Amino acid sequence: MWNKLKIQLSQTDLILKLLDQNDMKECKLVKKPCNGNFLQEIDSTKEPINITEYQQIIGRLNYLAQHTRPDIMFTVNQLSRFSTTPNTKHWVALKHLLRYLKGAVNIYLEYTKSTPIHPISELTGWADADYGNARDNRKSISGNLVLFFNNPISWLSKKQSVVAQSTTEAEYISMNICAKQLRWLTFVLKDLGQNITKPTLFNDNSGAVIISKKASLNANTKNIEIRFQYSRDCVTKKLLNIVQVSSNQMIADILTKPLSTLKVIQALQQLHLVNPGGVSENNRINAQ
């Protein structure tokens, strides 16, 4: 159900079903989706496991991550990379994620009637990247989040298609992906009758922000492919604002890397993921 002040989305039934199917209803709880050394662990070579079972669980977790649980998107995306060659290390990491969901089974995504996070933009994008963290090919991870009136409406975590030559380039590529999503959502919202002002894109890398605002590339940045110049083109055409924020303010951080327990808790608040506490079941929409 929903009211004039808020809408709450949850997939509690799906999580409970996953826990039951994997005999984890009484498992020990953990407070974050993955360990700090998660990326090193899953890149190791160990004994293979049942591919079909692994793929089935990953498929359900991906459905959950895409619809109501951006907090697990990074972990699910990384585990999905090994869907055709899973081993015991991947299984351990998968079980860790299920243990996290067991402790967060009732968390819901809440949409509220709120003011924009940036005073001149109803629609904001947050672009982050973790440079060269893929041990097999050194590709970086992009994490993008889009907010509408401070409510998350789109998020992704994915490995970049090319090997970035620097942290700045990795961040710039991530900004380009987010800029495309912002433009598309601008058109969608206008079709729905929303009067959208120029969106704002936030990034925490000063070099990437500077490049996006320049009319031309220099000797240090000309290696960046033409297809990654979309955000700069949008700025030139005055279709997009680019604003630098500090790393502590980057709310897309959870989409690019493992975080500490404290930062996971902070990210849940920033992503409007709420522990229901005393909230009535009648105010929750089950999105399964």
Explain the overall architecture.
- The chain has 288 residues and is α/β, with parallel strands linked by helices.
- The chain folds into two domains: 6-110 and 277-286, no CATH class; 115-249, Ribonuclease H-like superfamily/Ribonuclease H (Nucleotidyltransferase, domain 5), CATH 3.30.420.10.
- It is 37% helix and 16% strand.
- The chain has helices at 12-21, 38-42, 51-67, 73-80, 88-103, 167-191, 206-213, 230-236, 261-270; strands spanning 6-10, 108-112, 123-130, 141-148, 151-159, 200-203, 241-244, 273-274, 285-286.
- The strands form two sheets. It has a five-stranded mixed beta sheet with strand order 5-4-3-6-7. Strands 8-2-1-9 form a four-stranded mixed beta sheet.
- A hairpin with a 2-residue loop joins strand 4 (141-148) and strand 5.
- Helix 6 packs across helix 7 and helix 6 crosses helix 8.
- The two termini are 14 Å apart.
- Residues 278-288 have low confidence and may be disordered.
Which features characterize this protein?
288 residues; alpha/beta; Nucleotidyltransferase, domain 5; five-stranded mixed beta sheet; four-stranded mixed beta sheet; 9 strands; 37% helix; 16% strand; globular; disordered C terminus; DNA/RNA_pol_sf; Reverse transcriptase Ty1/copia-type domain-containing protein
What's the layout of helices and strands?
Layout: E1 6-10, H1 12-21, H2 38-42, H3 51-67, H4 73-80, H5 88-103, E2 108-112, E3 123-130, E4 141-148, E5 151-159, H6 167-191, E6 200-203, H7 206-213, H8 230-236, E7 241-244, H9 261-270, E8 273-274, E9 285-286
Parallel strand pairs: 1-9, 3-6, 6-7
Antiparallel strand pairs: 1-2, 2-8, 3-4, 4-5
InterPro entries: DNA/RNA_pol_sf
Protein name: Reverse transcriptase Ty1/copia-type domain-containing protein
